[in-house]
Amino acid sequence: MPHVSAKVHVSRPAGEVFSFLRDPRNLAEWSSSIDRVIEGPIATELGDEYTCKFPGRRRAHRLRCTASTPVEYLAFRGAGMWTPLGRHSPELEFRLSPGRLGTTVTVSVKPHLDGGMILLAPFVTMAWRRDLPCELQSLADLLSSRDGTRDGRDTGDGQDTAPSVGWPG
Q1: Quick check: 107 and 94 in contact, CB under 8 A?
Q2: What phi and psi, each to the nearest 5 degrees, are found at residue 101?
Q3: What is the DSSP letter of 115?
Q4: What whole-number distance in Å separates Cα of residue 64 and Cα of residue 41?
Q5: Got the DSSP string for 17-50?
Q6: Is 161:6 a contact under the CB 8 Å cutoff?
Q7: How far is it, in rounded angstroms, from Cα 116 to Cα 104?
């Protein structure tokens, strides 16, 4: 399956960034992949499930924490959203790399597709490649504005929001 990754620098300590990301209710503040989280625990642990609304969907779906290593790695996977062509189960992975001046956040999106949706993989990947850098910039702006600064655009160390696309072997 294809995946798309992008990274951004956030001028906040890794612990603060991780605390923000581990509450899936915050996804709706910066990511177009979730409209809102309706119910679930506040601080995510491995296996926790949430009821959420995905954009353009009338029914509520499940979002599950599939990995959680404090201050380093976090992953959520949406339950298979049915379409007439097959199912789509998006997975969001967050990797945090602390640094002197903040945290580099790398987000990877893996759209797990089956049935006829596999034929749409290039289009799904194209959409994530287009949207993910903007969403990460929104995350950086949101978290950085909490201390009165705006950050994340260009740190001078190559940590920008340029996406990369991969097709694992």
Answers
A1: yes
A2: -105, 15
A3: G
A4: 11
A5: HHHHHTSGGGHHHH-TT-SEEEE--SS--TT-EE
A6: yes
A7: 36
SS3 state of residue 67: strand
Tell me: the pLDDT tens digits for 53-112? 777 767 777 888 889 999 999 998 877 666 777 666 778 899 999 998 999 999 988 876
For 27, the token pair is 């996804």
Residue 155: pLDDT over 50: no
Coil, strand or helix at 136: helix
| Rounded Cα–Cα distance for residues 113 and 82 (Å) | 10
Reduced to 3 states (helix: H, G, I; strand: E, B; else coil), residue 60 is coil
Delineate the domains of the chain, giving CATH numbers in brackets: 3-151 (3.30.530.20)
Determine the 3-state secondary structure of 12 from DSSP: coil
Question: Could you give the C-alpha distances from 166 to 7, 104, 116, 141, 150, in angstroms and in order?
Answer: 14, 20, 21, 26, 30
